[in-house]
Structures are given as C-alpha cells and as structure tokens.
C-alpha cells in the first residue's frame, strides 16, 4: 500500500461523520455522565453506611446502661463504703438502716440555706410511699413547721443514735436534735424516739433507681420527745 493511499484512508477516517458525531457527543456529555455515575456511587455508599449506623445504634441502645452499686453502711446506717456489684441483698438490715438514717437526717435538719433545705425535703419524700399514712404525716409536719421559715431564725443539727428492729417491718429510731440560733448559740438539745413501718419495693425503672435505689419505703410512723 502506497503512502498516499494510507494517507487517504486516514483522512476518510478523520472525516467520518459517525465517528465525528460520537467524538463530539463524548466530549460534550461524557463528563456529565461520569460525574453522575460518581455521585451514584457516593449515594449508594452513604446509604450502606447509614444502614450500618442505624443497626449499630439500635444494638447499643438495647444494651443495659444501669450499673448496680452497693452501699455498705455501719450499725447506725452511716455510709461506710460504696462500690459496684452484681448482686445486692436489699433485705440486709444495714441497708434498711441506711435508708431510715437518711430519711431522719433529711426530714429534721434545718440549715438555713434554701437550696440545701429544698434538697433535704426532696430527699425525705424519696423514702415515703406515695399516698400512705407516712406521706400524709410528712405533709402535715411540713405545714405545721415550715423549714424555710424556721431556717431564717435557727438551725437544727440531727444525729441518729440508734436504729433497732422491733418487728418484721417496724423499726425504732432514736435521734438527737441540737437547735442553735444563727450565731450558732445553742437553744435546745432534745432527744426523740419514733417508730417507723417500712416495706421494700425493688425499683424497676431508671427514675425509681435514681430516686430510691434500695427500694426502701416508709409507710407509717410516729415520734415523740424523750423526757
């Protein structure tokens, strides 16, 4: 084949209207098609990642987030040690003493600080069974002696002396209340004794666990001064 014949074939190939149209189409739209394909790949990958994330979040959400803790208390119910455990025996007498000790301290203490006093009141109600005789008794107690008003004149410091089991569900508690004026000058020092009936309701919700993790509730109580 001569040089001129090859050159003629090349010129015909270059001037082929079908090839020229294909080349022009690719040059004009090929880039758009390529970018569209890339976005399709990105979209598919995003959907896959989203599906995996949803399943993973669902799995994490189904796991138990509550960590049980045990509170070790001494014979008067004061906190001795706190630690994470797997099994807690809430029938342990010291566990009930801890709850009763906390209730007495929260109920009878007067500190003169609004935030602290409000916390004491909320803490006291945590150990009272709603709608019980103890609940009505506590309401009446706060109505007769408003701790916020009392805190503007004096302070009351509480110390529990003994907590003794009387029957299967009734405990005798003896405590001392030292009352001072705002200058911390002692006004009175009185010993009280009361009888408290309790029941155990193990918490089943996160809110109940936060409020009363040991599930100890006072259902009825009465008290008087020791002369």
Automatic annotation (TrEMBL):
It comes from the Bacteria. This is VirB8/TrbF family protein. The chain crosses the membrane at residues 38-59. The keyword Transmembrane helix applies. InterPro entries: NTF2-like_dom_sf, TrbF, VirB8. Residues 21-224 form the Bacterial virulence protein VirB8 domain. It is found in: Membrane. SUPFAM superfamilies: NTF2-like. It is a single-pass membrane protein. It comes from Campylobacter vicugnae. The keyword Translocase does not apply. Keywords: Membrane, Plasmid, Transmembrane, Transmembrane helix.
């Amino acid at each position: 084949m001569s040089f001129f014949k090859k050159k003629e074939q090349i010129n015909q190939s270059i001037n082929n209207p079908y090839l020229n149209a294909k080349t022009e189409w690719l040059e004009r739209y090929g880039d758009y098609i390529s970018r569209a394909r890339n976005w399709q790949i990105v979209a598919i990958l995003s959907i896959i990642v989203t599906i995996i994330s949803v399943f993973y979040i669902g799995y994490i959400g189904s796991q138990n987030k509550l960590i049980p803790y045990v509170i070790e208390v001494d014979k008067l119910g004061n906190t001795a040690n706190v630690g994470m455990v797997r099994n807690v025996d809430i029938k342990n007498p010291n566990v009930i003493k801890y709850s009763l000790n906390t209730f007495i301290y929260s109920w009878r203490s007067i500190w003169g600080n609004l935030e602290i006093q409000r916390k004491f009141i909320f803490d006291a109600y945590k150990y009272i069974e709603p709608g019980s005789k103890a609940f009505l008794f506590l309401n009446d107690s706060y109505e007769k002696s408003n701790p916020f008003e009392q805190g503007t004149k004096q302070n009351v410091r509480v110390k529990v002396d003994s907590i003794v089991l009387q029957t299967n569900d009734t405990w005798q508690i003896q405590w001392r209340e030292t009352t001072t004026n705002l200058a911390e000058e002692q006004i009175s020092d009185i010993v009280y004794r009361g009888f408290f009936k309790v029941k155990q309701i193990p918490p089943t919700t996160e809110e109940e666990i936060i409020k009363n993790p040991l599930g100890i509730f006072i259902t009825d109580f009465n008290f008087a001064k020791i002369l």
